[in-house]
């Protein structure tokens, strides 16, 4: 179902499959062939930040699961305590190698297109903080369950950078135009309760209950006739995905030009310093 455009790039082969288990250094995946449900745990320590190779691994895993005839649904969660994903690895954008920067953004686009449009049913079990790119992964799933006392949102402006149009579109599709406008301007990180209230997440359960809740909800999804469910998702999302598909090259170039500006580099350097200072307090 994912359009042929999404399959133009062959992902790196760094994920190994042992029967119903797939492993890479950053991802652990198991598939329950009885239920058709796969569980993907992100484990790029310390904070599941998204660098080039991790993004390729995530996409590669989704492609492999799509090819598994027995797999119908995917639950995404984190193996890192208290952090779902800290978003993009800021070190990919700070003082970058230009060629790698191109490849990095392309990998982010490709991962997003694969996840957003996958015919698999997807549930994010958000068991930790989920800023920026972490929020993007969450809102690209079909359903979100979050544990209490964490934060989620598109906080890019706090770093002196701007969420690209496709982050904005995915957010708008989730919480609506006005809420997105406010959220992006303020770089708003929502508490779990606020996120539930605004519809950024669909359900809140304790950390202890989150996997069970995700499994329960996923059983509802995989019970629906597969093709009908996948086509209804395509109906809702294709237009948004096509907007990026038709402008991928210029989006990479805009990102690279934006990142290489002195002002942006200064902001990123400052933000990284703040992160380190906060830690030493
Ligand atoms: C014209 C426009 C065109 C195109 C668009 C232009 C621009 C592009 C925009 C790109 C979109 C960006 C998306 C993003 O995802 S940006 C990243 C945003 N992420 C964050 O702001 C999160 C920052 N991190 C935190 O808030 C905390 O770390 C967190 C996740 C709450 C965890 O807290 P804690 O458990 O206390 O852990 P530490 O803070 O001590 O962190 C441990 C360790 O990890 C480092 N780190 C944290 N986050 C990141 C990160 N995102 N990237 C890289 N490194 C990170 C942190 O510095 C610590 O490092 P140390 O070496 O000190 O151990």
**Can you tell me the number of structural domains?**
1
Strand content: 15-25%
- Look at the structure and give the mean pLDDT: 93
CATH superfamily: 2-enoyl-CoA Hydratase, Chain A, domain 1
So, CATH architecture? Answer: Alpha-Beta Complex
Read across the widest sheet, the strand sequence of neighbours is 1-2-3-4-5-7-9-12
Which molecules are bound besides the chains?
Answer: ligand LYEYTBR6
The span between the termini is 50 Å
- Secondary-structure element pattern, one letter each: EEEEHEEHHEEHEEHHEHEHHHH
Shape: globular
Number of helices: 11
- Radius of gyration over C-alpha positions, nearest whole angstrom: 18 Å
Low-confidence stretches: 1-13
Q: How many β-strand stretches?
A: 12
Share in helix:
40-55%
Look at the structure and give the CATH class: Alpha Beta
At the fold tier of CATH, the topology name is 2-enoyl-CoA Hydratase, Chain A, domain 1
Which sheet architecture does the biggest sheet show? 8 strands, mixed
Task: Indicate the structural class.
Answer: alpha/beta
Pfam families: ECH_1
Pathway: Lipid metabolism; fatty acid beta-oxidation
Subcellular location: Mitochondrion matrix
Catalytic activity: (3Z)-dodecenoyl-CoA = (2E)-dodecenoyl-CoA; (3Z)-octenoyl-CoA = (2E)-octenoyl-CoA; (2E)-tetradecenoyl-CoA = (3Z)-tetradecenoyl-CoA; (3Z)-decenoyl-CoA = (2E)-decenoyl-CoA
